[in-house]
Design goal:
heterodimer; A: Rna Polymerase Sigma Factor, Chain: A; Arc Repressor Mutant, subunit A; 10 helices; B: 2 strands; about 5% strand
Protein backbone atom coordinates (compact mmCIF):
# COMPACT_ATOMS: atom_id res chain seq x y z
CA UNK A 1 0.00 0.00 0.00
CA UNK A 2 1.58 3.25 -1.11
CA UNK A 3 2.07 6.10 1.26
CA UNK A 4 0.13 9.23 0.38
CA UNK A 5 2.02 12.34 -0.72
CA UNK A 6 3.37 14.01 2.35
CA UNK A 7 3.51 17.53 0.88
CA UNK A 8 -0.23 17.39 0.24
CA UNK A 9 -0.74 16.25 3.83
CA UNK A 10 1.50 19.04 5.11
CA UNK A 11 -0.64 21.62 3.35
CA UNK A 12 -3.81 20.14 4.78
CA UNK A 13 -2.26 20.05 8.25
CA UNK A 14 -1.14 23.69 7.96
CA UNK A 15 -4.61 24.74 6.85
CA UNK A 16 -6.17 22.84 9.75
CA UNK A 17 -3.77 24.51 12.17
CA UNK A 18 -4.80 27.91 10.85
CA UNK A 19 -8.45 27.12 11.60
CA UNK A 20 -9.71 25.54 8.37
CA UNK A 21 -11.82 22.63 9.62
CA UNK A 22 -12.58 21.61 6.03
CA UNK A 23 -8.93 20.70 5.54
CA UNK A 24 -9.14 18.26 8.41
CA UNK A 25 -12.26 16.75 6.83
CA UNK A 26 -10.16 16.00 3.77
CA UNK A 27 -7.60 14.24 5.94
CA UNK A 28 -10.39 12.21 7.56
CA UNK A 29 -11.77 11.18 4.17
CA UNK A 30 -8.30 10.30 2.95
CA UNK A 31 -7.20 8.21 5.91
CA UNK A 32 -10.42 6.51 7.05
CA UNK A 33 -10.23 3.49 4.69
CA UNK A 34 -6.56 2.93 5.45
CA UNK A 35 -6.99 3.21 9.21
CA UNK A 36 -10.14 1.14 9.13
CA UNK A 37 -8.13 -1.77 7.74
CA UNK A 38 -5.48 -1.32 10.40
CA UNK A 39 -7.82 -1.07 13.39
CA UNK A 40 -10.28 -3.64 12.11
CA UNK A 41 -7.64 -6.31 11.62
CA UNK A 42 -6.41 -5.68 15.15
CA UNK A 43 -9.85 -5.80 16.80
CA UNK A 44 -11.82 -8.06 14.43
CA UNK A 45 -14.94 -6.17 15.34
CA UNK A 46 -16.66 -3.57 13.20
CA UNK A 47 -18.41 -1.64 16.00
CA UNK A 48 -15.23 -1.41 18.05
CA UNK A 49 -13.35 -0.30 14.96
CA UNK A 50 -15.88 2.41 14.24
CA UNK A 51 -15.78 3.79 17.79
CA UNK A 52 -12.01 3.65 17.88
CA UNK A 53 -11.66 5.43 14.54
CA UNK A 54 -13.96 8.21 15.69
CA UNK A 55 -11.87 8.60 18.83
CA UNK A 56 -8.63 8.52 16.82
CA UNK A 57 -9.70 11.40 14.57
CA UNK A 58 -11.16 13.32 17.49
CA UNK A 59 -7.87 13.01 19.37
CA UNK A 60 -5.89 13.92 16.26
CA UNK A 61 -8.03 17.03 15.71
CA UNK A 62 -7.43 18.21 19.27
CA UNK A 63 -3.72 17.49 19.09
CA UNK A 64 -3.02 18.75 15.59
CA UNK A 65 -2.11 22.25 16.81
CA UNK A 66 0.85 20.68 18.55
CA UNK A 67 1.91 18.70 15.48
CA UNK A 68 5.23 20.16 14.39
CA UNK A 69 5.92 17.87 11.44
CA UNK A 70 8.87 16.00 12.92
CA UNK A 71 7.30 12.89 11.40
CA UNK A 72 4.89 12.71 8.49
CA UNK A 73 1.19 13.03 9.16
CA UNK A 74 0.88 9.45 7.88
CA UNK A 75 3.20 8.15 10.62
CA UNK A 76 1.64 10.40 13.25
CA UNK A 77 -1.98 9.37 12.63
CA UNK A 78 -1.01 5.70 12.39
CA UNK A 79 0.83 5.97 15.73
CA UNK A 80 -2.28 7.41 17.36
CA UNK A 81 -4.45 4.68 15.86
CA UNK A 82 -2.14 1.82 16.85
CA UNK A 83 -1.58 3.10 20.40
CA UNK A 84 -5.27 3.74 21.02
CA UNK A 85 -6.15 0.31 19.63
CA UNK A 86 -3.51 -1.43 21.76
CA UNK A 87 -4.80 0.38 24.86
CA UNK A 88 -8.34 -0.58 23.97
CA UNK A 89 -7.36 -4.23 23.50
CA UNK A 90 -5.62 -4.30 26.87
CA UNK A 91 -8.81 -3.04 28.52
CA UNK A 92 -11.02 -5.37 26.54
CA UNK A 93 -8.84 -8.38 27.31
CA UNK A 94 -9.99 -11.60 25.73
CA UNK A 95 -13.64 -10.60 25.68
CA UNK A 96 -14.40 -10.12 22.03
CA UNK A 97 -16.87 -11.25 19.45
CA UNK A 98 -15.78 -11.83 15.92
CA UNK A 99 -17.90 -9.76 13.58
CA UNK A 100 -15.87 -10.24 10.49
CA UNK A 101 -17.18 -8.44 7.49
CA UNK A 102 -17.81 -10.18 4.23
CA UNK A 103 -14.93 -10.51 1.88
CA UNK A 104 -15.51 -8.17 -1.00
CA UNK A 105 -16.46 -9.78 -4.31
CA UNK A 106 -13.53 -8.09 -6.02
CA UNK A 107 -11.24 -10.62 -4.34
CA UNK A 108 -12.16 -13.00 -7.17
CA UNK A 109 -10.13 -10.87 -9.54
CA UNK A 110 -7.13 -10.59 -7.27
CA UNK A 111 -3.95 -11.99 -8.78
CA UNK A 112 -2.86 -13.60 -5.53
CA UNK A 113 -6.27 -15.13 -5.00
CA UNK A 114 -6.13 -16.71 -8.43
CA UNK A 115 -2.63 -18.01 -7.75
CA UNK A 116 -3.64 -19.48 -4.44
CA UNK A 117 -6.63 -21.34 -5.84
CA UNK A 118 -5.02 -22.41 -9.11
CA UNK A 119 -1.78 -23.93 -7.86
CA UNK A 120 -1.47 -27.13 -5.93
CA UNK A 121 -1.28 -26.01 -2.36
CA UNK A 122 -2.89 -26.66 1.00
CA UNK A 123 -5.03 -23.65 0.36
CA UNK A 124 -6.68 -25.34 -2.55
CA UNK A 125 -7.61 -28.32 -0.43
CA UNK A 126 -9.64 -26.27 1.96
CA UNK A 127 -12.56 -24.05 1.37
CA UNK A 128 -11.12 -20.58 1.11
CA UNK A 129 -13.78 -18.90 3.21
CA UNK A 130 -13.29 -21.47 5.94
CA UNK A 131 -9.58 -20.93 5.71
CA UNK A 132 -10.07 -17.20 6.05
CA UNK A 133 -12.19 -17.77 9.11
CA UNK A 134 -9.47 -19.94 10.62
CA UNK A 135 -6.90 -17.37 9.74
CA UNK A 136 -8.88 -14.70 11.55
CA UNK A 137 -9.13 -16.92 14.58
CA UNK A 138 -5.41 -17.55 14.42
CA UNK A 139 -4.79 -13.82 14.18
CA UNK A 140 -6.79 -13.28 17.35
CA UNK A 141 -4.65 -15.83 19.16
CA UNK A 142 -1.57 -13.71 18.55
CA UNK A 143 -0.58 -11.17 21.15
CA UNK A 144 -1.80 -7.63 20.44
CA UNK A 145 1.71 -6.41 19.58
CA UNK A 146 2.35 -9.31 17.20
CA UNK A 147 -1.01 -8.84 15.53
CA UNK A 148 -0.25 -5.16 15.04
CA UNK A 149 2.99 -5.99 13.24
CA UNK A 150 1.36 -8.67 11.08
CA UNK A 151 -1.46 -6.31 10.16
CA UNK A 152 0.85 -3.49 9.20
CA UNK A 153 3.33 -5.62 7.28
CA UNK A 154 1.26 -8.30 5.56
CA UNK A 155 -2.15 -6.68 5.24
CA UNK A 156 -1.30 -2.99 4.96
CA UNK A 157 1.96 -3.58 3.12
CA UNK A 158 4.07 -1.19 5.19
CA UNK A 159 7.86 -1.48 5.13
CA UNK A 160 9.73 -2.48 8.29
CA UNK A 161 11.16 1.01 8.72
CA UNK A 162 7.72 2.64 8.74
CA UNK A 163 6.38 0.10 11.25
CA UNK A 164 9.36 0.74 13.53
CA UNK A 165 8.61 4.49 13.45
CA UNK A 166 4.93 3.97 14.21
CA UNK A 167 5.57 1.56 17.07
CA UNK A 168 8.73 3.39 18.21
CA UNK A 169 10.73 0.17 18.33
CA UNK A 170 13.79 -0.89 16.36
CA UNK A 171 13.53 -2.50 12.96
CA UNK A 172 15.10 -5.60 14.50
CA UNK A 173 12.23 -5.84 16.96
CA UNK A 174 9.76 -5.52 14.10
CA UNK A 175 11.44 -8.33 12.15
CA UNK A 176 11.64 -10.51 15.24
CA UNK A 177 7.95 -10.05 16.06
CA UNK A 178 7.06 -10.76 12.46
CA UNK A 179 9.09 -13.97 12.40
CA UNK A 180 7.53 -15.21 15.63
CA UNK A 181 4.00 -14.31 14.50
CA UNK A 182 4.48 -16.11 11.16
CA UNK A 183 5.56 -19.25 12.97
CA UNK A 184 2.52 -19.11 15.20
CA UNK A 185 0.12 -18.57 12.31
CA UNK A 186 1.76 -21.41 10.42
CA UNK A 187 1.25 -23.75 13.39
CA UNK A 188 -2.40 -22.80 13.78
CA UNK A 189 -3.15 -23.26 10.10
CA UNK A 190 -1.27 -26.55 9.88
CA UNK A 191 -3.26 -27.80 12.81
CA UNK A 192 -6.46 -26.86 11.01
CA UNK A 193 -5.32 -28.61 7.83
CA UNK A 194 -4.53 -31.79 9.75
CA UNK A 195 -7.82 -31.63 11.71
CA UNK A 196 -10.25 -29.67 9.51
CA UNK A 197 -13.33 -30.44 11.62
CA UNK A 198 -11.89 -29.26 14.92
CA UNK B 1 1.17 -33.28 2.90
CA UNK B 2 2.56 -29.87 2.30
CA UNK B 3 2.78 -27.34 5.03
CA UNK B 4 1.89 -23.71 4.85
CA UNK B 5 4.95 -21.71 4.07
CA UNK B 6 5.58 -18.04 4.80
CA UNK B 7 4.72 -17.01 1.29
CA UNK B 8 1.32 -18.66 1.36
CA UNK B 9 0.51 -17.20 4.73
CA UNK B 10 1.51 -13.80 3.48
CA UNK B 11 -0.76 -14.20 0.44
CA UNK B 12 -3.65 -15.34 2.62
CA UNK B 13 -3.17 -12.39 4.92
CA UNK B 14 -3.07 -10.00 2.00
CA UNK B 15 -6.53 -11.20 1.00
CA UNK B 16 -7.81 -9.69 4.22
CA UNK B 17 -7.56 -6.31 2.50
CA UNK B 18 -10.80 -7.22 0.80
CA UNK B 19 -12.72 -7.43 4.04
CA UNK B 20 -14.81 -4.32 3.86
CA UNK B 21 -17.21 -2.49 6.16
CA UNK B 22 -20.91 -2.27 5.23
CA UNK B 23 -21.65 -0.30 2.04
CA UNK B 24 -21.84 3.46 2.57
CA UNK B 25 -19.82 3.27 5.76
CA UNK B 26 -17.01 5.55 4.59
CA UNK B 27 -19.51 8.07 3.17
CA UNK B 28 -21.31 8.29 6.51
CA UNK B 29 -18.18 8.30 8.62
CA UNK B 30 -17.51 12.04 8.25
CA UNK B 31 -21.12 12.95 9.16
CA UNK B 32 -20.85 10.75 12.23
CA UNK B 33 -17.57 12.43 13.12
CA UNK B 34 -19.15 15.91 12.91
CA UNK B 35 -22.15 14.78 14.95
CA UNK B 36 -19.95 13.38 17.71
CA UNK B 37 -17.88 16.57 17.78
CA UNK B 38 -21.01 18.69 18.19
CA UNK B 39 -22.27 16.43 20.97
CA UNK B 40 -18.92 16.62 22.72
CA UNK B 41 -18.91 20.40 22.43
CA UNK B 42 -22.36 20.64 24.00
CA UNK B 43 -21.28 18.51 26.94
CA UNK B 44 -18.26 20.70 27.69
CA UNK B 45 -18.49 23.28 30.49
CA UNK B 46 -18.48 26.93 29.47
CA UNK B 47 -15.08 27.67 30.99
CA UNK B 48 -13.45 24.98 28.88
CA UNK B 49 -15.00 26.31 25.69
CA UNK B 50 -13.74 29.82 26.59
CA UNK B 51 -10.30 28.42 27.33
CA UNK B 52 -10.15 26.64 24.00
CA UNK B 53 -11.30 29.75 22.14
CA UNK B 54 -8.63 31.79 23.91
CA UNK B 55 -6.08 29.16 23.01
CA UNK B 56 -7.18 29.38 19.38
CA UNK B 57 -6.78 33.14 19.36
CA UNK B 58 -3.34 32.91 20.95
CA UNK B 59 -2.33 30.31 18.43
CA UNK B 60 -3.53 32.40 15.48
CA UNK B 61 -1.70 35.45 16.76
CA UNK B 62 1.36 33.24 17.14
CA UNK B 63 2.09 34.59 20.59
CA UNK B 64 4.87 32.05 20.95
CA UNK B 65 6.93 33.87 18.34
CA UNK B 66 6.91 36.98 20.53
CA UNK B 67 9.03 35.07 22.99
CA UNK B 68 11.90 35.46 20.56
CA UNK B 69 11.96 39.16 21.43
CA UNK B 70 12.93 38.96 25.09
CA UNK B 71 13.28 42.72 25.50
CA UNK B 72 9.76 43.34 24.28
CA UNK B 73 8.35 40.58 26.40
CA UNK B 74 10.25 41.84 29.47
CA UNK B 75 9.03 45.39 28.90
CA UNK B 76 5.46 44.22 28.62
CA UNK B 77 5.80 42.18 31.80
CA UNK B 78 7.37 45.08 33.72
CA UNK B 79 4.65 47.48 32.59
CA UNK B 80 2.00 44.98 33.58
CA UNK B 81 3.61 44.54 37.00
CA UNK B 82 3.85 48.31 37.60
CA UNK B 83 0.24 48.84 36.59
CA UNK B 84 -0.87 45.96 38.78
CA UNK B 85 1.08 47.30 41.79
CA UNK B 86 -0.15 50.89 41.43
CA UNK B 87 -3.71 49.81 40.97
CA UNK B 88 -3.55 47.59 44.06
CA UNK B 89 -2.05 50.46 46.10
CA UNK B 90 -4.91 52.78 45.14
CA UNK B 91 -7.45 50.09 45.54
CA UNK B 92 -8.51 51.22 49.03
CA UNK B 93 -9.25 54.85 48.14
CA UNK B 94 -10.58 54.03 44.81
CA UNK B 95 -14.16 54.87 44.09
CA UNK B 96 -16.21 52.00 42.90
CA UNK B 97 -19.81 51.55 42.12
CA UNK B 98 -20.21 49.59 45.30
CA UNK B 99 -18.64 52.17 47.60
CA UNK B 100 -20.98 54.51 49.48
CA UNK B 101 -21.14 58.12 48.25
CA UNK B 102 -20.77 60.91 50.86
CA UNK B 103 -23.59 63.34 50.39
CA UNK B 104 -23.61 67.00 51.57
CA UNK B 105 -26.67 69.10 52.15
CA UNK B 106 -26.24 72.71 51.19
CA UNK B 107 -28.25 74.98 53.47
CA UNK B 108 -29.86 77.96 51.89
CA UNK B 109 -29.84 80.11 55.00
CA UNK B 110 -26.67 82.07 55.74
CA UNK B 111 -24.25 80.63 58.21
CA UNK B 112 -24.15 83.83 60.24
CA UNK B 113 -26.81 86.45 60.61
CA UNK B 114 -26.12 90.11 60.04
CA UNK B 115 -26.29 90.81 63.76
CA UNK B 116 -23.82 88.05 64.57
CA UNK B 117 -21.51 89.47 61.98
CA UNK B 118 -21.71 92.92 63.54
CA UNK B 119 -20.75 91.58 66.92
CA UNK B 120 -17.35 90.61 65.68
CA UNK B 121 -16.27 94.22 65.97
CA UNK B 122 -15.91 95.88 69.28
CA UNK B 123 -18.26 98.80 69.70
CA UNK B 124 -15.68 101.05 71.30
CA UNK B 125 -13.08 100.68 68.68
CA UNK B 126 -13.65 102.47 65.41
CA UNK B 127 -13.75 100.14 62.42
CA UNK B 128 -10.46 99.59 60.70
CA UNK B 129 -9.95 98.48 57.16
CA UNK B 130 -6.80 97.19 55.60
CA UNK B 131 -5.99 98.46 52.14
CA UNK B 132 -2.72 97.46 50.52
CA UNK B 133 -1.47 96.27 53.85
CA UNK B 134 -1.64 99.79 55.20
CA UNK B 135 -3.83 100.31 58.25
CA UNK B 136 -6.56 102.78 57.52
CA UNK B 137 -8.82 104.52 60.00
CA UNK B 138 -11.32 107.32 60.07
CA UNK B 139 -9.17 109.26 62.47
CA UNK B 140 -7.48 112.27 61.11
CA UNK B 141 -4.15 111.51 59.58
CA UNK B 142 -3.01 115.12 59.66
CA UNK B 143 -2.30 115.35 63.29
CA UNK B 144 1.19 116.35 63.90
Amino acid sequence: MDQPRTDEDQQLVARTQSGDAGAFDQLVIKYTPRLYGLVYNMTSNHEDTNDLLQDVFSKAYKAIRGFRGKSSFYTWIHSIAVNMTLNFLKKRGRRFHLSLDDVDASVQNDKEFLELTATSSPVREADLSELQRRLNEAMMKLSDEHRAVVTMFHIQGMPHAEISKILRVSEGTVRSRLFYANRQLQNYLDEFRKNPVS
Amino acid sequence: MDEFNDNEIAKLLRLKRYEQPPPGYFEDFLHEFHRRQRDELLRQPLWRICLERAHDVMFRLDVRSLASYPAAVTAVLVCAAVIALSSSANAEGEWTLASPVATRIFRTQPLRSFDESAQTHRATVPPRYVLDSVPVSYESTFRF
